[in-house]
Amino acid sequence: MKRNVFVIALEDKQTRAMQTLRERKDLEIHGLLDVSTAVESDNVSFNHLLSLANEQLTAYPGTVDAIIAQWDFPTSVIVPILCQQHHLPSPSITSVLKCEHKYWSRLEQQKVVPDVVPKFCGIDPFAEDPLSQVTLDYPFWLKPVKAFSSHLGFKIESSLHFEQAIKEIRAGIRQLGDAFNEALAYIDVPEEIIHLNGNACIAEEIISGVQGAPEGSVFNGEFNIHGIISQPKAENSIALFDRLEYPSNLPEHVHHKMVETAKTFLAHIGYNNGCFNVEFMWDEAREKLWLIEVNTRISQSHSEIFVLVDGMSNHEIAVDIALGQRPSLLNRQGVAPIAAKCFIPFAHHDGVVKRIPSQAEIAALKARLPHTDVVIDVEPGQQLSHLMHQDSFCYRLGTLYVTGNTHEEIEQNYQYCLDVLNFDIEPIDA
Q1: Which long-range contacts (CB under 8 A, 24 or more apart) does 315-318 make?
Q2: Share of the chain above pLDDT 70, in %
Q3: Distance of CA 314 to the CA centre of its chain
Q4: Domain span at 359
Q5: DSSP tag of 293
Q6: Are strands 66-68 and 3-8 parallel, antiparallel or unpaired?
Q7: How many C-beta neighbours within 10 Å does residue 271 have?
Q8: 427 three-class SS
Q9: E strand or H helix that includes residue 424
Q10: Which residues make beta-bridge pairs with 277?
């Protein structure tokens, strides 16, 4: 009898990636909630989404054998609650929330891995004088303790910048912060977090370097890494980073430090029977490693590049863990030694899309560079400022998947794609 695996916000591209799973013929893969409801909704209610998911699971006539998270909050917290209710393997809700709340996570990191933690402080943006809570020198980053990507994230260089940012944060933070407070209500929250809840902010020291992210799992207390991703950036890039490369080409001693740091922190918070990816920043000039954040799930954005390199999606690990099985992943059985997920960036000024690359242009590109895939996320008539989940630094017009034999070849192929894909964006005056 097939086992039923439910994946929140399952898209066609992930369904295709999951065709690579070893036990695919013995699994029935189901979507739980859809992307528009669980990921792209303008008005997020955590309890409402949890109720909708429960209704869908209750109405299903068969067994519920596994539930998988592959997106950020609210999905990442809905899953352990659902698993607890259905007596399925998952991390504790508290250990997940200790990672999800950026300020709480920093407090816990500081206890066990203080050498990789940037200076930080918590800020109540609704206080009478929020600036009085800042303990950092300019410049610093200011962002909500819970946000989509870099949404409502600001580089603060003066008190004027701070005041302008606080005004925007006050107007937009409750969109996700109120839902996060609903999630925090499922656990006993420590005193310092009660006062800096889902509608609070964190200010952090500015760090620089190349990002890297070990992705792995903890199964019955057994810690494993199944891949390390790096996030390099071209010198002329307008984005914080412009691609994800697998496998990472960061130095081996950096890989070791990232893995040991992740293991120490996850053990400290009691994280077990779940997947994770931990984001770091390696500052080569200073020979300094920084911990950015801990994500309590596999990254669905890594799935295609795992398939290209290993021949199998990282969903393999998530399914194993969710079914209570020791996880394993094929190694280097794909079509290329190196693969990258690359973003098509556009300078952060508003505009209306007039033209996107034609199917003929895309076909010619794919003929020139085998195993390349092009995903366009905009269409003629769209206004860029109306796009969902864009960061504060540039717009993303689409995604490229490219392969190569070396990391240098990846960058060359990426640049070639950007050169031949023609977009026409008509600027809108601010």
Answers
A1: 315/7, 315/14, 315/17, 315/18, 315/21, 315/68, 315/70, 316/20, 316/21, 316/22, 317/216, 317/217, 317/226, 317/275, 318/68, 318/69, 318/70, 318/217, 318/275
A2: 96
A3: 14
A4: 339-430
A5: E
A6: parallel
A7: 22
A8: strand
A9: strand 424-427
A10: 215, 295
pLDDT in the model for residue 147: 86
Tell me, what CATH number does 405's domain have? 3.90.1170
Task: Give the count of alpha carbons within 13 A of 45, CB side only.
Answer: 6
Q: Which DSSP string do the residues of 268-284 spell out, in sequence order?
A: HTT--SEEEEEEEEEET
In a domain, 190, yes or no: yes
Residue 205's pLDDT is 97
Distance (Å, whole) CA 297 – CA 321: 11
How does 49-60 read in b/e, with b if 16+ C-beta sit within 10 Å? bbebbeeebeee
Domain tally for the chain? 3
Domain boundary (157, 178, 205) is at 205
φ/ψ of residue 376, rounded to 5? -95, 125
Two structure tokens written together for 319: 């399914």
Where residue 174 sits, what CATH number does that domain have?
Answer: 3.30.1490
Average pLDDT along the chain? 93
Same domain, 193 and 133: yes
Instruction: Give CA–CA dist 351/425, Å, rounded.
Output: 6
Residues 12 and 87 in one domain: yes
